[in-house]
Structure to design on (224 residues):
């Protein structure tokens, strides 16, 4: 969506390395930022989210950081494994119940 | 566990045909959404509904309409299918609060010849 920019569009890392995906948004009133993972041929599923009252959230090997001043948030995956290979989407709230989704990052973890 | 189902995984239609895509959720969610997913463009919102018989246009509503007669069911209608509507269509649902997780269906891959 035009109000959410996501980079990079593709990312290849060696197994065990870290991967970072960044999204920027435009609406300063946004206060909830989810990340979805879509494996090949499957539906997108939420993997982690963050609300604007915190700057970082971790869940095992994945973490999300939020910089409200700069209006960007990032997904960090540490100790990557082949099963982390997927397309990752960020999202930010739009008006009402809508979300803008980023254009996706295709992550490949090379064994 | 939330379950969102879509009527078809694959569809092949001809230009000019009327196409119905159906989505059903079993978690009593108020909000339902239709997206299309195209390579390099991510997920783009076509229409959404926050209540029975209510609908709102998303970013790309042209050529589509929707129907929500029952809370659990949200239909996407292509009145006269065109080749540029060949895409993956994803349905999603969420609870009533604005900042909530969306649960997606498995998708319908539509090919318009």
């Amino acid at each position: 969506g035009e109000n959410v920019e996501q980079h990079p569009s593709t990312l290849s890392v060696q197994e065990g390395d870290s991967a970072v995906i960044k999204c920027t948004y435009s609406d300063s009133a946004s206060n909830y930022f989810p990340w979805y993972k879509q494996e090949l041929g499957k539906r997108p599923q939420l993997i982690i989210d963050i609300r604007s009252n915190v700057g970082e959230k971790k869940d095992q090997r994945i973490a999300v950081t939020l910089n409200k001043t700069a209006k960007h948030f990032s997904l960090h995956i540490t100790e990557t494994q082949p099963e982390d290979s997927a397309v990752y989407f960020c999202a930010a709230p739009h008006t009402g119940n809508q979300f803008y989704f980023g254009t996706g990052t295709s992550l490949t973890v090379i064994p | 566990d939330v379950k969102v189902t879509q009527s078809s995984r694959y569809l092949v239609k001809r230009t000019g045909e009327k196409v119905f895509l159906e989505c059903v959720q079993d978690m009593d969610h108020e909000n339902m959404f239709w997206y299309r997913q195209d390579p390099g463009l991510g997920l783009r919102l076509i229409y959404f509904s926050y209540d029975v018989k209510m609908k709102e246009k998303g970013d790309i509503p042209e050529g589509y309409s929707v129907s929500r007669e029952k809370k659990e069911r949200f239909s996407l209608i292509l009145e006269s299918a065109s080749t540029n509507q060949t895409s993956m269509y994803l349905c999603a649902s969420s609870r009533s609060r604005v900042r909530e997780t969306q649960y997606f269906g498995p998708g319908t891959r539509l090919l318009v010849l």
About this structure: The first strand of chain A starts at residue 4 and ends at 7. DSSP finds no helices and eleven strands in chain A. Chain A has a mean pLDDT of 92.
